[in-house]
From TrEMBL:
MF annotations from Gene Ontology: serine-type endopeptidase activity
Single biological process term from Gene Ontology: proteolysis
Domain Peptidase S9 prolyl oligopeptidase catalytic: 429-631
Organism per entry: Actinocatenispora rupis
Key words, A-Z: Hydrolase, Protease, Serine protease
Organism lineage string: Bacteria, Bacillati, Actinomycetota, Actinomycetes, Micromonosporales
Listed name of the protein: Peptidase S9
Length: 633
């Protein structure tokens, strides 16, 4: 048995994007390092023999970002993206099983965003931005590169690659709209296409529309608008004809649970197929028959079949069940899932289970001593059923308490803690539990896994009842003798960072706080963050909503900065566009003004998530040191 080190976390690797061949014989997945030491992610593609008769093998020896593996309908060719020729500019490649040859099939100067091999073996759909012109190149050389908002904004367009000639055609069917996703009908017919008005993360998701495009004739039909953040297209045939489904946020509010929407092409009727369910769909996957749906259900997950009468549960899985893939018939599925003490790996099997693990990407964690994790269920002050996780220090049980307790709020807020492995570079349960802390991971209202109404309860009310939900859980842990009331800490990243900043402005019960990439002013975030309209839905208003005070002022931590007495550690990426650095600067200046003990650490070149190895090591070590200083002097 060995102790957990920071290197265990940052030097690990994780599988992503598993994709089963339509015939079920092979599976390809991307292997992604937990951190990077250069400006690029050096990922790898691996092939797995599903029956286990051959050892897994790496597809190429390239140093590159390899991603988005997709099989041809006949299972004979694997297509993927790689930037090995020019880092940062991905091109489409193909691997032929017959001879093992790998070759690039595009040289598109703007790079390829996504792709879809079609039933016609000579055609592949490409999603790619326009290639730069000579005029563009000249302006760049001359530094005449002023950016005019709304003019020549990058957007992915649907293009058709003819593999026989290498020619790329761009059908003029969607105007200037940004193409998000494409799915071909399972019989090899037309394509369902999701578009947005632009690629702007603030504006685009509210402008989604669904189309049907026929590559044989080059014609398209618009089917109408779709909900915000639409994705996960799937076709199926029912008694009344063809249907196209997708996942989107439930209208009318943007802070809402997701739902599966079903458009019957014969009647034009759009229906919410998961209305009223206490689950939240996370993935919709097409087969030759009824599509498969993965659901978040509290701390666990469900795999179901979308039958005409509604979802039929096929199997339940502890923790998360991500990146669902299936064979053409749906007789075999694969997904990323794990356990309390094991990271997520690729598992394969029939939809009804059992699933068999076919990857082992973190053997270095075998034998590492971890904290004891258990579900924690309770009721909110208003009677709402809640859940979360409690992780006790390694080698301890509840009778050994009370312990110093760190509560870590999750991001989103439309996210959740599932009953899986809790170890990442950000403040995480096992990283602190192995250092002697008890850790509370709450799932307050506003999160995923309990249906639409549960998720919508924080719209315009962030920090209100959701904070009360968290505080109720902490009080129960104190009452049960697990948490030491004189040694309480609070932490979080993104929306969790907001809740941490909010907490210390509402109470002085905490002896230390960590605010990672946290929201401090909702009005400023709605005006400057990349998801402005979503932030308006959470905060309740924006600065241009007339003369204040505004609703968002009442739920912004910065409004309560004069009350803060708790020492605060602020961590933020300099190039964060989701929650811009100004949010951290605002809190830092306020705390400095009021003389509050704090540290402000910014990480150059980093966005909303910290990716560089040395920076991840710093976050891990600084997190422990901060709580050790204030909770375990």
């Amino acid at each position: 048995m060995t102790g957990l080190t920071a290197e265990h976390v940052v030097d690990g690797r994780a599988p992503q994007s598993p994709t089963l061949a339509p015939d079920g014989r092979l599976l390809c997945h991307v292997l992604v390092p937990a951190s990077r030491t250069t400006d690029h992610d050096d990922t790898e593609l691996w092939l797995v023999d599903v029956e286990g008769t051959a050892a897994p093998r790496r597809l190429t020896a390239d140093t590159a970002t390899e991603s988005r593996p997709r099989w041809s309908p006949d299972s004979g060719t694997l297509y993927f993206l790689s930037d090995h020729a020019e880092r940062g500019t991905a091109q489409l490649h193909r691997y032929a099983l017959a001879d093992g040859a790998v070759a690039a099939v595009t040289a598109w100067r703007a790079g390829i965003v996504d792709h879809l091999p079609l039933a016609d073996a000579d055609l592949v759909v490409l999603l790619a931005e326009d290639e730069p012109t000579e005029q563009d190149a000249r302006r760049t050389r001359d530094r005449d590169d002023a950016v005019v908002a709304g003019v020549r904004e990058p957007r992915a367009r649907l293009r058709l690659l003819d593999l026989r000639t290498g020619r790329v055609d761009t059908p003029d069917v969607f105007g200037d709209r940004h193409v998000v996703e494409v799915r071909q009908r399972p019989d090899g017919g037309p394509l369902a296409v999701l578009t947005q008005a632009s690629a702007d993360s603030d504006y685009g998701p509210r402008t989604g529309r669904l189309h049907v495009f026929d590559p044989a004739t080059g014609t398209a039909e618009e089917l109408g608008p779709v909900g915000a953040d639409a994705r996960s297209l799937a076709w199926w045939y029912d008694g009344d004809g063809w249907h196209v489904g997708h996942i989107a946020l439930t209208p009318p509010v943007l802070q809402a649970g997701t739902a599966v929407f079903d458009l019957a092409l014969g009647t034009g009727v759009l229906a919410n197929r998961t209305a009223g369910l206490p689950w939240c769909p996370t993935d919709l996957h097409q087969t030759d028959g009824a599509p498969l749906v993965a659901f978040a259900d509290g701390l666990d997950s469900i795999l179901a079949r979308l039958d005409p009468s509604g979802p039929t549960t096929l199997s339940r899985h502890p923790g998360r069940f991500d990146d669902l893939t299936a064979t053409r018939t749906g007789a075999m599925v694969a997904a990323l899932t794990g356990g309390r003490y094991r990271p997520a790996e690729v598992h394969v099997g029939p939809p009804a289970g059992p699933l068999r693990r076919v990857t082992d990407t973190c053997p270095e964690l075998d034998g590492v001593v971890l904290g004891t994790q258990q579900p924690f269920t309770y009721r909110a002050a208003d009677g709402l059923d809640l859940d979360g996780l409690l992780v006790l220090p390694a080698g301890k049980d509840a009778s050994d308490g009370p312990f110093p307790l760190v509560t870590i709020a999750h991001g989103g807020p439309y996210d959740r803690y599932a009953d899986g492995f809790q170890l990442v570079w950000a403040p995480s349960a096992q990283w602190l539990a192995t250092a002697g802390y008890a850790v509370f991971l709450p799932n307050p209202r506003g999160g995923q896994g309990h249906g639409h109404e549960f998720a919508a309860r924080v719209a315009g009310r962030v920090g209100r009842e959701e904070w009360s939900d968290i505080l109720t859980g902490i009080d129960l842990l104190v009452a049960d003798g697990i948490a030491d009331p004189d040694r309480l800490g609070i932490a979080g990243w993104s929306h969790g960072g907001f809740l941490s900043a909010w907490a210390v402005g509402q109470t002085d019960r905490f002896r230390a706080a960590l605010v990672g990439a946290g929201v401090t002013d909702w009005g400023m975030l709605a005006a400057t963050g990349e998801n402005g309209q979503f932030e308006v839905a959470l905060g309740g208003s924006i600065g241009w909503s007339g003369i204040g005070p505004h609703p968002h002022d009442a739920v912004s931590p910065i409004s309560y900065a004069s009350r803060i007495r708790t020492p605060v550690l602020i961590l933020h990426g300099v190039e964060d566009t989701n929650v811009p650095l100004g949010q951290a600067v605002y809190l830092h200046r306020a705390l400095r003004h009021f003389g509050v003990e704090h540290e402000f650490v910014s990480y150059p070149r980093e966005g909303h998530l910290i990716r560089e190895r040395r920076h991840q090591l710093d976050v891990l070590r600084r997190t422990r040191a901060w709580f050790d200083r204030w909770l375990r002097p």
